[in-house]
Amino acid sequence: MSRYTIYLASDSLSFLEPESVTRLAASHFADHSYDIVKFANVRTSEKAQEIVTLAKQTPPSLLVFSTVLIDVRDTFIMKCLEQQVECIDLLSPFVKSLGKVLKTAPVHQLNYSWKLNDEYFRRIHAIEFAINNDDGKSLSALQKADIILIGVSRTSKTPLSIYLSYHSYLVVNIPLVGEESIPKHLYDIPRRKIIGLTIHPNRLNHIRSERNMVMGVGAESSYSDLGHIIDELEFAEGIMKRIGCPIIDVSNNAVEETAEEIMKIIKKPIN
């Protein structure tokens, strides 16, 4: 399995939102593993240059930065171009587009603090909840959750949880790998909160076979065996039908598309 490094640089102490976006993007490349290295309070051009140099020395790498400090931003961009380091400026494109919409120039506040309003804290709580309840089965988590995702392995449950949490939903995901994997409390949870995820057997076979190759697992593994996959999917869909929850086919969907579909379902009025 190839491995790469993502460097996160911020002019504040908070990495939660940049990191959640970064991890969501990285989830699209599940066959590659990565490390995240964080640099907080990056408020000088000298520090920015040090980070770019480090990224250059540890390929393959990506530098993601978020700053309102113009000198620091310009240093990141200039030095990344000079040293051929791939970088992403998280904040500037948004500010530029918003300026076009509002037909006004942004006010660059060098001494700023983010507004820590209720929405901000809800999002932080939701992201932490999703991370702590990846493969979660506790009764309290199921009761607190806004959305419970169920499905077999490799149906995008984890990246969906992170994406939805960024929209402030409390999400639990549960892998269905046999009767023993199903929390006994699940059938007592309101079915309007539960979303089943399924996938075409051939598509899942392809995904799991690639995963096995990367992990060095032999082709004879039942994990990627088509017959075993069909049995898994039939079992999982049987559970979903018993619960009576909506079922979404993720075979040809990007994470964002499936998430939008889930949010539409959750927002529908209850009959």
From TrEMBL:
Keywords: Kinase, Nucleotide-binding, Serine/threonine-protein kinase, Transferase
Record bears the keyword Kinase: yes
GO MF entries: ATP binding; protein serine/threonine kinase activity
Listed Pfam families: Kinase-PPPase
Keyword Transferase recorded: yes
Alphabetical list of InterPro entries matching this protein: Kinase-pyrophosphorylase
Name this protein carries in UniProt: Kinase/pyrophosphorylase
Organism listed in the record: Echinicola strongylocentroti
